[in-house]
Amino acid sequence: MSFEQQLDVFLRARFSLIVLVTPEEERALRSIKAVCEKTKRPCLTWDQADQFQDLCGWTESMLAGKDALAALEQIDKSPIEALFVLKDFHECWGNVQIKRKLRGVAQRLKFTKKSILITCPQRRIPEEFKDEAVIVDFPPPTTAELEAVLNQIARSPGVKVNLTKLGREKLVQAALGLTAAQAQRVFARAVVTDGLLDDRDISLVTEEKKQIIRTSEALEFYEATETPEDVGGLGVLKDWLRLRERAFTQEARNYGLPAPKGIALIGIPGTGKSLTAKMIGGLWGLPLLRLDVGSLFGSLIGESEERARRALQVAGMVAPCVVWLDEMEKALAHGGQDAGTSTRVFGTILTWMQEKKSAVFVVATANDISTLPPELLRKGRFDEIFFLDLPSEVERLEIFSVHLRKRRRLVHDYDVARLARESEGFVGAEIEQAIIDAMYVGFNSAREFTTEDIASALKRQVPLSVSQRETIDSLRDWLESGRAQSASFPENKTAQE
């Protein structure tokens, strides 16, 4: 149901108090006006500066209301059966007298054909109104609306357009999630930069999205440059991701494919879960956003849930994108002594994951599954749950090769087969550290580090497979019980055993 249809239902059902959450007041008023004109319903707006104004131009007598109290009094007494739109009224939430007056008026309007609609940029409303008001989130511009903004810019005098059909589609798709004003600004900026609208301007839209992400306290933008070649092993997981590489294209939608929801990466610390999250953004060419769940928590009642909703809303605005929930068990585990705040934040994220309509692919990582609530990992929440085990000998050889190339060394100068054999039980992070330790030895000896240096560094380490044997055995039992799919090929798993 579109916003216009939803509003029409609310008005016909005689909802007396509607709170419309949106930063786009101008576009929201256009939609409200369209609904009122279609249904022949008078509509008056009010704000502190201009007082009452007729949005549709149908009423002959105009009400007078110099302040919020006077405006509410006029609405209460007015014989006009209209929709009254109060702009910036959220600034009055702190006034006890105004809140009491609004509550009383809203209760009396239930028996009339009059309704009050308040536009505000955030979802937080006083506790007193949670039973009186219906809260509606105004949706961001659709593809058609953004294309109309683009066409308006393109028709401006002196503007040259050199967009291919595919380039135009990608430019509009890249702008999805921006407000109409933001899209207009970024398109105009592209024109001013070189006097031309072409396929290269897609990067400008991406940069605008980065600015939006920075306004969220809990989201961090990552430059995802990693590729599958930067990750050793995990062949099953890589094949799964490659199969869905074009999942967010128009071609996939035309074929009838739904956008993938996400994956959970469970396993031993240091096996490449975080690196895989970064690799997905690079492989699919999508923005990668890390959701820092710890920063969601605030000191005020309801602040944590509001921060969570705002961060998830921003993620939806930036879609298509990848959202990375790192070490989710630390923030989403039950049992915290926080008066139920973590449980409510968890519920907010869980509901969003289940009901989100935007093309947001969630990558959730966890090391300790024992503290995670079972409803998080149930089927349907994620497309697949992958377990990242200790790397096999074949995978360890790949990991050594990846990290040597990363440090601009030739792989054939080292006996990686020997190193793979001697590093049984080591995870990728431990292998990387062994190479770094060997490099320090070579650097301080004014020579190139060798295979022997790396082998010596391995012998000095105590791997997690030894220091946390019980934890790792428990995780492997969890995999064997059939609750997840191994991220590695069976033959690699066999080689390790």
Distance between the termini: 55 Å
Number of domains: 4
Strand residue content? 5-15%
- In total, the number of strands is 15
What is the CA-based Rg, rounded? 28 Å
The CATH architecture of the largest domain: 3-Layer(aba) Sandwich
Taking pLDDT < 50 over at least 5 consecutive residues as the criterion, the unreliable ranges are 493-497
How many H/I helices?
Answer: 21
Structural class: alpha/beta
CATH class of the largest domain: Alpha Beta
How much is the average pLDDT?
85
Biggest sheet descriptor: 7 strands, mixed
Task: Describe the protein's architecture and organization.
This protein is α/β, with parallel strands linked by helices. The chain folds into 4 domains: 3-137, Rossmann fold, CATH 3.40.50; 143-213, Helicase, Ruva Protein, domain 3 (Orthogonal Bundle), CATH 1.10.8; 221-388, 3-Layer(aba) Sandwich (Rossmann fold); 393-496, Helicase, Ruva Protein, domain 3 (Orthogonal Bundle), CATH 1.10.8.60. It has 21 helices and 15 strands. A 7-stranded mixed beta sheet has the order 9-11-12-13-10-14-15. The two termini are 55 Å apart. The relative contact order is 0.08.
Short recap of the structure:
The protein is an alpha/beta fold and 497 residues long. It has helices at 3-12, 25-39, 68-77, 96-109, 143-154, 165-175, 180-194, 202-214, 235-243, 250-255, 273-284, 303-318, 328-332, 341-355, 393-406, 416-422, 428-444, 451-460, 464-467, 469-480, 490-496; strands spanning 17-21, 43-47, 51-54, 83-87, 115-120, 134-137, 160-162, 196-198, 219-222, 262-267, 288-291, 321-325, 360-366, 384-388, 485-486.
